[in-house]
């Protein structure tokens, strides 16, 4: 029996009428993405044909998913909204605050001890407001959602950029900041610019060593980390029908790495099999009744160039396995060519760790494919040359995999089975084999490989691959190992070759679990007490932001960020995760990973008031104490990566009024708007070069802030000279109202009172 089956039935009941109406209004056949979008309009039946990439549209998502690191701030904001209960089905998942170190049992015990205050807070808030709660150890949010909540044709938002994983079950699932989630939890519409559409036609069949992961590794190489920005990627074609549901989830998951709004697949037999295997026959039965509405119209897939803004075609018959990296997930290299490139670049060839799991590749099928390689090593007497770490995706998967002997295969290879949690993928890894910043290489089946991402070491070269390829590379201990062509020497001195992997799509004996880790909220939460100690170092009740106003003069340049500046650079994870519920404490990591264009150092900027140099948060606090606003200047795709809204809230808290960049990543730009800040882009990118270290900044026409109207900023240099530059923005009137009120939450509270 599925969760929220009545809600799902309601969606399916209205979907045909809304899709038919949308097709009539648009005047042509529809993609799956368009069907889901038009079926989830806030106002109900469609009345307008929206312009892709142009029109802002209000939507009504079906559900919300929160993970513990971002849920803290989201729920702290929701507590201010004055609502007794969430308006749509919502769940909280504790998967980020568990550090991988010794193994599942001791690591989970330690996490429950060190983060008990946060877990207790999340459990009590969830219980009070009608939110389903998944305990620490229950699993990684996106795998748990896929197994329990995702459904074809639905719309979901989540406070994690990899919410898009649910596209593997035919959803439009989108990562957002906590403030966006608060809007929907409070019963309000969710706003999104109507996305552009990228179609990926898949033909042929995966074979040999090639996996679903290689599809998105290839796409990332084609589109780069910003090529999908503002677009939904829709996969289709005969090759798509040949992929498993969890394989589709893997592809959608890493769509976040190309900046895509989300990715999705049409409903097919593999999704039906997965729904039935995960005890959701009722959802499959309902989906089958409207099957034609849960995929794109046939005319679209027959002539995709006429319906998508961009079309990519990939032949799975000829697709080769890839390893992407290091330091960016879009540097795609076919296995077999990596050795030559690594030698040219000076990347370490010795592989120290192979890590399998994360929200991207931790399904039953993933584990069986990797285990088929590990078993060959055991059977052929090959000793693994690298350390192994495994993160199962959920307690259901872990329990079933242990029952079926899959985990024992890894243990026979001396692998460490970590908790069902994110672990090393998000920097929650107490790595014991490296004591400093040694240059080294790891391979993993995760989604991101930014500098310092896994272990905090800027010299760790991380490469992304499929679980089975990670297993093979780790067994060999060499980055240049090509299992399709190369031999290994076993402990008997014999040459042996690994056979291609074999996976099991779904457990033949079915899934099983003793305690999945779910806690149902009480029906009436009015008597549930939620307390936050005023002396807590980890939790802090929020104070409303004060509006910045329409007259900003005398502001100072805080930092001019050089090159890639992701949300990891703006608000690091790892050990800082402990402060995700305490805005003032976590603000001490603000932009400490960003490279200052002046001097090319991190966390070392000039304080214009004293002439001295210091850390970014320290200088920002000094400006704030003296009532001086600041601005941050950045490069392309600023805010790429995680959806964490702390990367917007911290600058807002420490007095940053505006972020001016060449281009934004979608989620981060929205997060800035939600917090009542100015997210601006250079009208002329070369103006970035005009910004000097000692600049004082005046906004010349902020009192005329209006949609589609550029602003002008005066930069006064230390020698008295000035440059006036034009800057663009994408604010609509509602978003300008957020700015004028100080934040979107301030406006919600004002409207609730009135």
Automatic annotation (TrEMBL):
Q: Give EC number(s), comma-separated.
A: 4.2.1.3
GO MF annotations in UniProt: 4 iron, 4 sulfur cluster binding; aconitate hydratase activity; metal ion binding
Q: Which GO biological process categories is it annotated with?
A: tricarboxylic acid cycle
GO CC aspect terms: cytosol
Q: In which pathway does it act?
A: Carbohydrate metabolism; tricarboxylic acid cycle; isocitrate from oxaloacetate: step 2/2
Q: Which NCBIfam families does the entry mention?
A: aconitase_mito, PRK07229.1
**Which reactions does this protein catalyse?**
citrate = D-threo-isocitrate
UniProt keyword terms in alphabetical order: Iron, Iron-sulfur, Lyase, Metal-binding, Transit peptide, Tricarboxylic acid cycle
Question: Can you name this protein?
Answer: Aconitate hydratase A
Q: Where is the Aconitase/3-isopropylmalate dehydratase large subunit alpha/beta/alpha domain?
A: 34-477
- Family matches, as Pfam families: Aconitase, Aconitase_C
Q: Which InterPro entries match?
A: Acnase/IPM_dHydase_lsu_aba_1/3, Acoase/IPM_deHydtase_lsu_aba, Aconitase/3IPM_dehydase_swvl, Aconitase/IPM_isomerase, Aconitase_4Fe-4S_BS, Aconitase_4Fe-4S_dom, Aconitase_dom2, Aconitase_mito-like
Q: Which residues form the Aconitase A/isopropylmalate dehydratase small subunit swivel domain?
A: 557-685
Q: Do you know which PROSITE patterns this protein is assigned to?
A: ACONITASE_1
